[in-house]
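Open question from group meeting: does this chain pack into something compact, or does most of it stay loose? Before anyone orders reagents, we agreed to write out a predicted structure and look at it together. Recording both the input and the output here so the notebook holds the full record.
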Amino acid sequence: MYQELIEKKNKLAVIGLGYVGLPIALEFAKHTKVIGFDINAKRVEMMQNSIDPSQELEKEAFNGCDIEFTNDLEVLKQANFFIVAVPTPVDKHNVPDLIPVQRASETIGKVIKKGDYVVFESTVYPGCTEEDCLPIIEKLSGLKNIIDFKTGYSPERINPGDKEHTLAKIIKVVSGCDAESLDVIAKVYELVVTAGVHRASSIKVAEAAKIIENTQRDLNIALMNELSIIFDKMNINTFEVLEAAGTKWNFLKFKPGLVGGHCIGVDPYYLTYKSKQMGYDSQVILAGRVINDGMAGHIAKKVLQHIIVNNGNVKDARVLVMGATFKENVSDIRNSKVADVVKELQSFALNVHVTDPHADSDELMHEYGFGLTNEIRNDYEAVIITVPHKAYMLLDEDYFEGITKKMAIIADLKGTYRNVIKNRYYWSL
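Structure tokens returned:
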């Protein structure tokens, strides 16, 4: 398989061309023939015109790539090596939503042939690939795993907005259903990952490795958020505490903040869901989730208290929320916890305006029921800097004085303007 791919006798397909799938597809397309498959016809058309719908890649990233973008199953049938990179979200009850990965498995089941390979990259709980996805492929194709086709799992490690830790520079964990598939899958990924690959002993180990990467970060951020709540009651600035503690060589440098997006705020629920199925109720992991999911309420309450004390007339008070995406310098609004902050503020009858240089107003309205403000006023009672976009880093204290009342609160969640804001009440997590 490997030799046929590099000689361009076989084709590699990437199913799901979001912020994970498209970079993978384009990178492989520099070395072999690639089919980029996505069910969204509008997105396919954009990519055919060298436009990244996720706004992560420049037009030049498409140059010199041997790739065909399509939503046609007949075209997909031409591939021999399939990579699945579809989303794996949770529903409103934080239960894993496997519909995207199941539908991708159905798609593969309709096009796979003897001798083909399937590698899943979507983040799932240990066992999902073999217990939930493979039976679908086998049933629809009439083929048997290992005997007729090979499978593997290689968790994605794409970090949206990060131009330094790119696909080629991050060690890739790979796994296979047997020794032969592991060797082939490792060699295929070595074509595009200059940092090298780590060969996991099994698919379940690779799945578990991915799930704990983000669970670990979630728990560490939860600790910082809980410390922030405690230190706020003590009138101690959390960032000053972390700065002092960080002088010790082995102190882990995490910061408090909103935990959203489609990884850190989602992946732990996949692990606790599977854990519960196995008869164990998670305690530490879910405790971290409770803290992080509760930060929107904590922030809104702090802002409301300040407005009540300094204004009193809550219904006339206006709040500006700066930043709506799930993290800085990206356009992705999926699972943005800023939306929770907005909803909490609105529940107190506050007039909330939202601004963001990267987010799309129509998408926000469709997803969360609010859009971006057309004009920033000069009489805000509170400004909440939720996402430290680069565009916001150019602002100074004069700017904030110009858009707020004298007794306004500047809630700078990430501590960006610490020691800068002097003439307004300054607060950070």
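Observations to bring back to the group:
The chain has a mean pLDDT of 95.
The two ends are 52 Å apart (CA to CA).
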